[in-house]
C-alpha cells in the first residue's frame, strides 16, 4: 500500500474524529444504518479481483468504508457499553499496530512486556492487593477474561485436571447471578462443564446477587453431591448496572472454600474515583477480576484486564513450555515471557494504549471523567422522572446505565402500576428504534429483562469519553419523545 493511500485514510479519520462535536454525526450514524445489507454490499463491491484495484479506487473504497460505518465516538452513540475512544489510546493502538508486535515473549516485545506488567500491577493496586501477589494478563475481551477466572478456579482446586481432564472429578458447578453476563455460561460450555453446571442465583429488586440465596444454592448443590468451585460476582451488570454485595459474598466463598471471581467488566472503572469506588467494596477479597478498560474508561477496543492475586497460578495452569518459543536456556530471565500464561500464542498488545492514556491524562483527569459519568446518570434520572411520558425502570441506578420506558399517550393514561403488564409496551422500543435509525442522529439500545419479567426498555449508557453533557441528555430525551409521539401502537 502506498504512503499516499495511508495518508489519505489516516487524515480522513483524524478529520472525522476532531470534527465529531459538529457534523460527523449526520452522515455518520444515518448512512450506516439506513442502507440495507444488500446495498452496502453493492456500494462497496467486496469482490477480490485478479489484478488488484487502482490506487484511486482503493482510496474510494476506504472512504466508503468510513462513510458507511457507525461512528461510535459520536456524542449521541449510547448503544453499547463502549462508545467514544480516548484519543491517546487511539494513538497508542496505532503505534502498536505499526510495530506489529506480539506479546508472547520478552525478546519480541521488551517494552510492551514491561508495560503490561506495570499496568497490571497498577490496576491490581486499585483492588488493595499487595504488589507482590498481583498477577494477570490482558485478554481478548471480558468474556475470555471470565473464562480465565473459571479455568484458574478449576486449576486451584483440581490441578490434575490439566492432565486428566474433568471426567473423573465429579459434577462441578459454578454460581453466578441471574443478571450476570452470558459469557460465564459460554465459558462453562467451552471448558466442558456444560451450561447446566451454571447455577443462577436470584437477584434483589436492583439486580444485585442475594448472598443468602447464594448460600442456600451452594448448600443445596452440596447435598446433591455436586462440587461447587466457583462464584462469579458482577460489579456493574450489563443491563441495570448493578453491583453485587462483594463483602457478604466473600464470606460465603470463604465458608464453602469457593473461588471468588468479580466480573467488573463494566464497573471496574469506578475504582478510579475515590467517590465511587465504595461500590466495589470487598473487591480486595476476590481471587480474580475481569476489568474492561474499553468500556467506561473509553480505551479503544479491546482492552480487557484479567487480574488475579494468585501469583504464578496463570503460568501453572496454562503453560505448555512450547520449545520453539519458551526455551529455558534464554539469554534473559524467561519469567518475563508472558505468553505461556495465555491461552493464545500470538497476542496483541492491549496494555500500551491504556498506559498511554493514563500517562497522558493523569489520575486527576481520569477521576473527573469517571465522576462526570455518575453525575450525568443522576441528571438523566432526574430529567426522566420530570417527564410524564417516561418511566424509570429503577428509581436509582448504581453505575453508567439508565433504563427507562417511553410511554405513548395511550399507556400513560393507565393506572401507574399496570403499564408494564400491557402487552403493547413491548412494541414501543422496537418501533422507536427503527425510526431512530432512519433519522440517524441517535443510537440507544433496548432489551427486555427476563429475570425481572420486564418488557423492552431503553438503556442509555454513558462512558468517560467524550464526556457527556446535560445538553446531550436533553437531546436523547427530546428525540425519543419526538419520535415516540408519532408512533401508533
Ligand atoms: C461487556 C461485558 C462482558 C463481556 O466483555 P467483552 O469484552 O464484550 O467480551 C462481560 N461481563 C460484563 C458484566 C459485561 O458488561
Ligand atoms: C511489522 O511489519 C512491518 C511491515 O511488514 C515491518 O516493516 C516491521 O519491521 C514489522 N515490525 C515488527 C516489530 O515486527
TrEMBL record:
Q: Which cofactor does it need?
A: pyridoxal 5'-phosphate
Give the GO cellular component terms, alphabetically: cytoplasm
- CDD domains in the cross-refs: DOPA_deC_like
| PTM-bearing positions, type N6-(pyridoxal phosphate)lysine | 295
Q: Which SUPFAM superfamilies match?
A: PLP-dependent transferases
Q: What biological-process terms (Gene Ontology) are attached?
A: carboxylic acid metabolic process
**Keyword Lyase assigned:** yes
Q: Which residues form the signal peptide?
A: none
Q: Which UniProt keywords apply?
A: Decarboxylase, Lyase, Pyridoxal phosphate
KW Chloroplast (keyword) present: no
One GO molecular-function entry: carboxy-lyase activity
Family assignment?
A: Belongs to the group II decarboxylase family.
Q: What is this protein called?
A: Glutamate decareboxylase-like protein
Which species is the source of this protein? Dinothrombium tinctorium
Amino acid at each position: 500500500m502506498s504512503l499516499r493511500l495511508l495518508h489519505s485514510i489516516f487524515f480522513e479519520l483524524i478529520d472525522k474524529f476532531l470534527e465529531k462535536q459538529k457534523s460527523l454525526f449526520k452522515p455518520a450514524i444515518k448512512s450506516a444504518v439506513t442502507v440495507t445489507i444488500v446495498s452496502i454490499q453493492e456500494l462497496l463491491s467486496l469482490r477480490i479481483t485478479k489484478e488488484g484495484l487502482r490506487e484511486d479506487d482503493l482510496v474510494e473504497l476506504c472512504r466508503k468504508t468510513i462513510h458507511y460505518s457507525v461512528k461510535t465516538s459520536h456524542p449521541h452513540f449510547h448503544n453499547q457499553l463502549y462508545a467514544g475512544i480516548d484519543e491517546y489510546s487511539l494513538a497508542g493502538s496505532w503505534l502498536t499496530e505499526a510495530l506489529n508486535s506480539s506479546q508472547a515473549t520478552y525478546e519480541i516485545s521488551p517494552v510492551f512486556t514491561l508495560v503490561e506488567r506495570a499496568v497490571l500491577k497498577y490496576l491490581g493496586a486499585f483492588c488493595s492487593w499487595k504488589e507482590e501477589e498481583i498477577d494477570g494478563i490482558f485478554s481478548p475481551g471480558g468474556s475470555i477474561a471470565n473464562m480465565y477466572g473459571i479455568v484458574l478456579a478449576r486449576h486451584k482446586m483440581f490441578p490434575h485436571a490439566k492432565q486428566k481432564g474433568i471426567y473423573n472429578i465429579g459434577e462441578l458447578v459454578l454460581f453466578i447471578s441471574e443478571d450476570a453476563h452470558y459469557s460465564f455460561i459460554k465459558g462453562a460450555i467451552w471448558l466442558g462443564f456444560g451450561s447446566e453446571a451454571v447455577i443462577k442465583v436470584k437477584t434483589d429488586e436492583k439486580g444485585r446477587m442475594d448472598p443468602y440465596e447464594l448460600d442456600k444454592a451452594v448448600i443445596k448443590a452440596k447435598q446433591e453431591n455436586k462440587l461447587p468451585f466457583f462464584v462469579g460476582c458482577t460489579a456493574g451488570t450489563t443491563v441495570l448496572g448493578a453491583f453485587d454485595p462483594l463483602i457478604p459474598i466473600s464470606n460465603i466463598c470463604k465458608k464453602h472454600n469457593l473461588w471468588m471471581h468479580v466480573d467488573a467488566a463494566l464497573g471496574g472503572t469506578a475504582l478510579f474515583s475515590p467517590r465511587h469506588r465504595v461500590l466495589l467494596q470487598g473487591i480486595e477479597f476476590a481471587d480474580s477480576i475481569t476489568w474492561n478498560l474499553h468500556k467506561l474508561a473509553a480505551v479503544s477496543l479491546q482492552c480487557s484486564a484479567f487480574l488475579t492475586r494468585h501469583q504464578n497460578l496463570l503460568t501453572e495452569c496454562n503453560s505448555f513450555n512450547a520449545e520453539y518459543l519458551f526455551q529455558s536456556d534464554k539469554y534473559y530471565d524467561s519469567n518475563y515471557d508472558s505468553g505461556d500464561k495465555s491461552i493464545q500464542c500470538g497476542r496483541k498488545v492491549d496494555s500500551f494504549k491504556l498506559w498511554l492514556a493514563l500517562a497522558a491524562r493523569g489520575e486527576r483527569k481520569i477521576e473527573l471523567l469517571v465522576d462526570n459519568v455518575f453525575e450525568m446518570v443522576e441528571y438523566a434520572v432526574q430529567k426522566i422522572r420530570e417527564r410524564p411520558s417516561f418511566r424509570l425502570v429503577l428509581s436509582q441506578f448504581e453505575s453508567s446505565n439508565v433504563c427507562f420506558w417511553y410511554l405513548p399517550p395511550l399507556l400513560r393514561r393507565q393506572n401507574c402500576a399496570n403499564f408494564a403488564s400491557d402487552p403493547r409496551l413491548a412494541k414501543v422500543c422496537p418501533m422507536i428504534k427503527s425510526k431512530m435509525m432512519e433519522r440517524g442522529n441517535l443510537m440507544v439500545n433496548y432489551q427486555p429483562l427476563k429475570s425481572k419479567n420486564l418488557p423492552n426498555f431503553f438503556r442509555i449508557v454513558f462512558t468517560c469519553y467524550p464526556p457527556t453533557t446535560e445538553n446531550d441528555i436533553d437531546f436523547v430525551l427530546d428525540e425519543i419523545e419526538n419520535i415516540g409521539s408519532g408512533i401508533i401502537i
